[in-house]
Specification:
four-stranded antiparallel sheet; about 30% strand; alpha+beta; elongated
């Protein structure tokens, strides 16, 4: 049986459609390709973005910035000397881009001007740290990518 060019085109299109359908099926059903959003409610988060920008500007207006460094017992954040650490309220959020299950947050509890994130909570690799804090009725925000 001879296959003419019209039949060949139909076979080629059918094979291509089958390939695409198999590829779509594998990508949607395989958990290895499951990627999470950075935040669950990103539209709501986007509406509060100007407040975040203002808080970052407030943090930049301080004479010193928050400093972070790796120490033996974890990641140490040092707040500016010009502030009274007892008046600071806020939270720290650590986001792991590669695995949503490793994300965590906690409230700020300073020891002097230092805040230690324990080594047992951090795995080696990239983290995004976000310190959202209030001091004397003003909001401040510190964001940083860290490699632990």
């Amino acid at each position: 049986m001879k296959i003419n060019w019209g039949t060949g085109i139909v076979i080629a299109i059918a094979l291509f459609m089958t390939f695409i359908l198999v590829l779509v099926y594998k990508m949607t059903m395989n958990q290895d390709y499951n990627h999470d959003l950075v935040v669950e409610e990103y539209y709501k988060k986007e509406l509060a973005f100007q407040e975040e920008i203002d808080a970052e500007k407030n943090a930049l207006s301080l004479s010193e910035r928050i400093k972070g460094k790796k120490v033996d017992s974890g990641w140490l954040l040092t707040f500016p000397k010009e502030i009274d650490s007892s008046k600071i309220k806020g939270s720290v959020f650590l986001y792991r881009p590669s695995n949503k299950q490793l994300d965590f947050d906690f409230s700020i509890e300073l020891s002097g001007l230092n805040l230690l994130i324990p080594d047992k909570r951090l795995l080696d690799g990239r983290w995004n740290i976000k310190v959202d804090w209030q001091y004397n009725g003003k909001s401040y925000l510190y964001k940083k990518e860290i490699i632990y």
